Amino acid sequence: MHLVPISDPGDEALRDYRDLTDVVLRRLAEPEGGLYLAESVKVIERALRAGHRPRSALVLPKWADEVGELLGGFDIPIFVGESSVLESITGFVMHRGALASMHRPELAPVSELLAGVRRIVVLEDIVDHTNVGAIFRNAAAMGVDAVLVTPRCADPLYRRSVRVSMGTVFQVPWTRIEDWDASGVRLLRELGFRVAALGLRDDAIPLDDYAASAPERLALVFGTEGDGLLPSTMAAADDVVMIPMSGGVDSLNVASATGIAIWATRA
What we know:
By secondary structure, the protein is an alpha/beta fold. 34% of the residues lie in helices and 20% in strands.
């Protein structure tokens, strides 16, 4: 393994890890640069298990041997530095002790990803990385076959999404559906799915009623925080489904709603 001690936060070799708290920068740079960041030994291990290739790692000294053993089969640098140096590079305290810069895998076409699957989740314009990560964890835990994300949805491979998901973003197959506004629902229907939009509408079907006779191939669609699904999406869907509320509450956090809906409609 190639352990590389570091002391200069400005070293150009560390550019993958610099100023990671700038969310807008990372959303633009990670897809364009073909990389993402895996945080913690457990998440790095899950990324490797999914077949993803590391580019380098950045670790605290006490994690160097463990990360070095994990990445021993790859000819890559493992940068090692004290907490103060790593914080000045990344912009945050590395409580989990390790980051790995990973090559971003190529996303599969929608039709290829969905061939033969029965139950999927679609995330429409969900912009909070924490919610995206939590939804992927729900999807993995409850047996969802695949996840689609729309063009304006937050990046599932952003560092915070990966961390909150506990690495399950590598476990659940996913891709982006590029033409969602124009023809996304129609494409899902052509691929054999019944499309259920989760939203508030007077004629919405209560979730427990819908789950009692859920279709064999089902696409559950969830909308952005606050505004929910686009009116055009609900109009195009086969069904509009709601989670009944009490206590004067009109809706749930989207990650919570996703967990409830996919559990209720589980195969």
